[in-house]
Amino acid sequence: MENAAVDGVAVCLDEGNDPYNLIVTDLVALIGHVQASLRLIEAAIAREALLAEQDAAADIFVLDDVTPRYVAASTALKASGSGLGVALDRLRGSGAPARVLN
């Protein structure tokens, strides 16, 4: 059995662990995490919009708008997710265009 450490993550290579399948599984999990984070950001933006509407109706004005930070984070996650999709497609040998995360 060989052990390799990459960025603090130990990977065991033996007959029971196919490195290709481990990488594909890990990329699929990462894409799932990115998609979950995007859903959380979308929910936070919707919540902020609802609160802003309620505050406006009550003549309350909030000067600290966090929405631009959420939008910037969402944009960065989409770019990362797109790159992960390309990596996954390349590993799978797919000639199809990479999936783009929404």
List the main descriptive attributes of the protein structure presented here.
mainly alpha; two-stranded antiparallel ribbon; 2 helices; 102 residues; 2 strands; rod-shaped; disordered N terminus; single chain
Please describe what this structure looks like.
The protein has one domain (2-92). Helices cover 64% and strands 10% of the residues. It contains two helices and two strands, in the order ββαα. The chain has a two-stranded antiparallel sheet with strand order 1-2. The longest helix is centred in the middle third of the chain and has 39 residues, at 19-57. It starts with a strand and ends in a 10-residue tail after the last helix.
Q: Summed up, what is this model?
A:
By secondary structure, the protein is mostly helical. The protein has two helices and two strands, in the order ββαα.
Secondary-structure topology with pairs:
Blueprint (H helix, E strand, L loop, with lengths): L1 E5 L2 E5 L5 H39 L9 H26 L10
Antiparallel strand pairs: 1-2
